[in-house]
Write a structure and sequence with these properties.
Helix content of chain A: 25-40%
Order of helices and strands of chain A: EHEHEHEEHEHEHEHEEHEE
Oligomer: homodimer
Number of helices of chain A: 8
Largest sheet of chain A: 6 strands, parallel
CATH architecture of the largest domain in chain A: 3-Layer(aba) Sandwich
Strand content of chain A: 15-25%
Amino acid sequence: MIGVLVPLIYDLYFSAILAGVAEAAYDHDLRLLLSPTQHDHAREASVLERLTRDVTDGALIVLPEESSPELARVMSDAHPIVIVDPLLPLDDRVPSVAVDHRAGADDAMRHLLELGHRRIGAVTGPPGWVATEARRTGYRAALARAGIAFDPVLEVASDFERAAGASAAAMLLSLPEPPTAIFAFNDAIAVGTMRAAHERGVRVPEDLSVIGYDDIAYATMVGPMLTTVRQPLGDLGRTAVNLLLRLLERPSSQPRQIELSTRLVVRDTTAPPRRT
Amino acid sequence: MIGVLVPLIYDLYFSAILAGVAEAAYDHDLRLLLSPTQHDHAREASVLERLTRDVTDGALIVLPEESSPELARVMSDAHPIVIVDPLLPLDDRVPSVAVDHRAGADDAMRHLLELGHRRIGAVTGPPGWVATEARRTGYRAALARAGIAFDPVLEVASDFERAAGASAAAMLLSLPEPPTAIFAFNDAIAVGTMRAAHERGVRVPEDLSVIGYDDIAYATMVGPMLTTVRQPLGDLGRTAVNLLLRLLERPSSQPRQIELSTRLVVRDTTAPPRRT
């Protein structure tokens, strides 16, 4: 039996990871003990505490909130764990499965640059998170490689939610010289960006290209359908289960840190910039 | 420890129910054993088999596929179970939690009728399912009460998925005398209906009112935001846990069948019909 700590269940991002975990668990005849933490530090600590005195053989911890004392204790305990999609940079003694977000950001930017965009805005996630910082590094490196000076007014922080994404995009669209493309650091921000554009009469993709990140189900709900960077969320869950099984079979093996690749999915929200 | 059988995890409908289950489990310090069945009959049977020889004290079975022999056996066993959101009509000896879909359909129809619609189409779910039949009964009864003859060409079956919903809506929109409003039997169908309308240059809500059913997250992703009938999915999960706890505490108590109410949520996709 393995424990699974996950921030939220009613959420397409986490439920995609959880579905991968459940698939692999079914294949290996493992039982899954599920504990959502509701993005709450105190609750995460209490669930971690329960977990280690519990009957699980090991645990997957998805997007742990912070390097809390409880998490540090669990990590140093003999209890086998695998961190999935770490929020903060990890000690390399902890086994983990993550996504190569820098390469994913590279793909997004290459697509926009190849379409001819030069003024590209970014609506990022929360500063400090691995997912934000790696994508930001990819964004800025791609600009530098293309010989485009980084313009700080074009990079606005958000919180990976639609509403904040819409506000951040509204700021970019009201600049004296607005961007012709926006790299939204996740699909929720991209949907917020499209809404902000729609409210201002800015057409997507004719006046503004929008690219997201995740490729979760609502990427294809909106019209036009979202160009985005697909994260292998199901594979993230499946790989985590396999890593944990390996750890249970050979407890003395070296902890592995696996990074999975993303894939660009071009749909209808990106196009060459308008000639002005 | 309680087992939870659920068809899918990567799905906003089921993850909303599961989130309610997880909330209640956390409050009662219960551990959750999760088993997705992937809408697969053989898998559901095997999971049911595992479940009953397993260490769980009882189980919640969400939307069981059919009255399979395994399900019948589990139902007649001493193993305490609660059926959540039954797909088919249940024997009244089985404890269950469901939603009053007929009343929900009544609310949807009352809203459209009050706006002045008389030619109202319906895109239903799969025939035979409780959720379809109860809503269909509500749809037809509301027409009858309003003195509107039921027109069979205005009622088209679908499968609760977006693509089939779009095809069914396209049929309605290409009728010589198309409806001025469509009651989509879930939100996925409503999103498909809006896409079909968009592709034909039919504006929502100016030319066509659309009402959904569920109120899951993507109801507010699309623009315009969807008017819909909200199902209390989290409450469905929470109530199921409480019912199971009651059963565990008093095994000889009468099985209860609880029905929860829906709520109409008026947003931007419904309006009075155009005067022609």
